[in-house]
Amino acid sequence: MSSIRFFVLDAFARYGEMHGHQLRLQAEQERVHLWTDISVGALYGALKRLAADGLLTEVRVEREGNFPERQVYAITEAGRDALRELHQATLAAVVHRPDPFDLAFARLDPDRLDDLPRTIQERLSTLERMLDETVANNDRARQWLTIGEELVITHGEHRLRSEIDWLRTLQRRLPDIIAAERTRVGSGRAAS
C-alpha cells in the first residue's frame, strides 16, 4: 500500500485543483508526518509520478507575484477509480513491520553486554519522550478533529505505550538475559 499515493489522490478529490505547494501546505496543516509514514518533502515527486500514470492531469500554470510558475493539477477519472481501489485496499490491509531492534537484540555483541542496560534505558527514554510529544500534539489538535480522526491519532499513542510496556518487561529481564548470553558465549569459546 502506498500512503503517499492515497493521500495525494484523496487531497485532490477533496479539495480540487491545486499546485504542489498548496498540497504541501495541506499536508503540513494536517500534520501527516506525525501520524502517517508520509514525508511531506516527497509529495512533489509523488505528484509527478501520479501525473505520469494518468491519475492526475496538468490543468494550467499559475504565477503569483515574484514566485516561480507553478503547475496546477486535477484528479482524473482514472485517479478517482484508483483512489476508490486504494481506499478499500488500504482499509483491508494489515501492516506489521519487523523492528530492526529485534535482529540486533537477537545478535548481541558479547563484548558490549555491560552497555546493554544503558542502551535499553536510552531507548526507553526516547520512546517515553516520543509518547509525551505525541500526546501533547494530539491534545492540541483534538478540538479540530472528527471522532474518527481522534481515534486515528490516538492509535499512535497506543502503539507507543505498547512498545514502552514491552521494553520495560525486557528491561526487568535484562540481568537474566545478560547472564544467559555470558554463559552461552563462554561455553562457545570453551568448545572452540
Automatic annotation (TrEMBL):
InterPro entries: Tscrpt_reg_PadR_N, WH-like_DNA-bd_sf, WH_DNA-bd_sf. It holds the Pfam family PadR. Residues 13-85 form the Transcription regulator PadR N-terminal domain. Gene3D superfamilies: Winged helix-like DNA-binding domain superfamily/Winged helix DNA-binding domain. This is PadR family transcriptional regulator.
